[in-house]
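Example record for the data management plan.
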Amino acid sequence: MLTSGLTKVGILDSPADIGWLSDPDIVLASVALPDIWLTTSFMTLVLFAGLQNIPGDVLEAARLDGANARQQLFRIILPLLRPVIAVALIVRGIDAARAFDTIVIQTNGGPESASTTLSLLIYRTTVRFGEQGLASAMGTLYLIAMLAVAIVTMRMIWRPGKGQS
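Corresponding structural encoding:
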């Protein structure tokens, strides 16, 4: 559909000019787009719920003190949303890291293993090669790495109580 639109506009000569799922340079971005499309609504709802919890009194006080919209965004809204953003990033990061089904359906890890993710590699190690011990070790290291990333994210972004006296 996108390729047809680019052809109609005149950017491409033929719909076959771009091999979205056959070009190793762009295949990972091509399989990531449906995953992003599927989870955007959830992330929007999470952030909207966080915005609903920001007290209107705080924003009104900032307006009365002369804060413009940009100052309200960067000095009030985003700092108050830090915990929500941290949780949303961790949930989305874990969801993206376990990307398996959309990649298997679209490319099965190809072309030239360009879209093979760690979860797909663990699956192949278990099922195709029959190496359950190796796959278990890979999965455990993967879990530890994801846990470390989540902890670093929480410490960097969340910062509850910072700046309060």
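Summary line stored alongside the record: The CA atoms of residues 82 and 159 lie 8 Å apart.
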